[in-house]
Amino acid sequence: MIEVRVFATLRQGREKITLLPAGGFPTAADVLRQLGIPAEAVSILLINGFHSKPENPVKDGDILALFPPVGGG
Amino acid sequence: MDERYIRNLGALTEEECLRLRGKKVFVAGCGGLGGHLTEMLLRLGVGAIVVADGDVFEASNLNRQLLSEPALLGVSKAEAAARRAERVNSDVAFTAIKVFLDENNVGGAIRGCDAVMDALDSIPARKLLAEACGRAGIPLIHGAICGWVAQAGISMPGDGLMETLYPAGASVSDKSSLAMTPALCAAMQTALCIRLLTGRPVETGTLYYFDLLNMEFEQLFSPVL
């Protein structure tokens, strides 16, 4: 399984944690697409705690954490 | 020691309080974050504060911006900060600059400061400020809010924290902000600033992320470290 944790405004309309079957999502971009999250809505993408990019591969057992850009003052 | 700082003692040593009196802090922006930052830095006893904001108050600021009042609609935010400084702690050398920071004025504005507080509200302006701090070798204490969420962290020159937080193409669609969010964010920024200026250990290149809706706290690390 691939575990996806979303934070802040990305949680609107989504669960905090989504489990996806491994195998059907070769990259983080595929995971974002499955969750209906545009790439520009994510500023921090962590795979197992490491900063990553949408094109990075994901594999069984990975944990993704997605944070939106926060820019207000 | 001046009686007004007596309650600082214990949490800070007398030497640390004196050290703060010798420091100069720049606050970029006098809105939601900047109002609270200015208030806290004034009361803590930082010796000199420079604030910059070219904006004026409007009614939509009243839900969260500490310096805003119905009677001050249309008044310069930087000027309101200066008035507040005079009332709260006139011992602080306070300078208010009524300009929006741009590539022509930002370098001169932050010159000679020991720390710069990021209280801006646009991504391009934040990157401009970070680049200027990098060139000047001044630590930048970042803070940003959105709705119920606040993030803060210290960016040291060249660490690339701002590029990590705002990759090319990143945009913020949610413009909401609640009164408690900038207060919390400014408190985190001020705590980081005081630790930095007093010489206490600080974690640079780290982002502290608070979600007040779900009461969650995350600590994220920059990939460049």
Low-confidence stretches of chain B: none
Name the largest protein-protein interface in this structure.
A-B, 20 and 43 residues
Rg of chain A (C-alpha, Å): 11 Å
Measured between the Cα atoms of the first and last residue of chain B, the distance is 40 Å
Structure write-up:
The complex is a heterodimer of chains A (73) and B (225). Chain A has one helix at residues 28-35; strands spanning 2-6, 17-20, 44-47, 50-51, 63-67. Chain A has 73 residues and is an alpha+beta fold. In chain A, strands 2-1-5-3-4 form a five-stranded mixed sheet, with no helix packed on it. In chain A, strand 3 (44-47) and strand 4 form a beta hairpin. The mean pLDDT of chain A is 94. In chain B, helix 2 crosses helix 7. Chain B has seven helices and eight strands. With 225 residues, chain B is an alpha/beta fold. Chain B is globular. Chain B has one domain: Rossmann fold (3-Layer(aba) Sandwich). Chain B starts with 13 loop residues before the first helix and ends with a strand.
Question: What is the strand and helix layout of this fold?
Answer:
The complex is a heterodimer of chains A (about 70) and B (about 220).
Chain A: E1 2-6, E2 17-20, H1 28-35, E3 44-47, E4 50-51, E5 63-67
Parallel strand pairs in A: 1-5
Antiparallel strand pairs in A: 1-2, 3-4, 3-5
Chain B: H1 14-21, E1 24-28, H2 32-44, E2 48-52, H3 77-88, E3 93-97, H4 106-110, E4 115-118, H5 123-136, E5 140-146, E6 149-155, H6 161-165, H7 180-197, E7 206-211, E8 216-221
Parallel strand pairs in B: 1-2, 1-4, 2-3, 4-5
Antiparallel strand pairs in B: 5-6, 6-7, 7-8
Helix pairs in contact in B: 2-3, 2-7
Overview in brief:
The complex is a heterodimer of chains A (73) and B (225). Chain A is an alpha+beta fold.
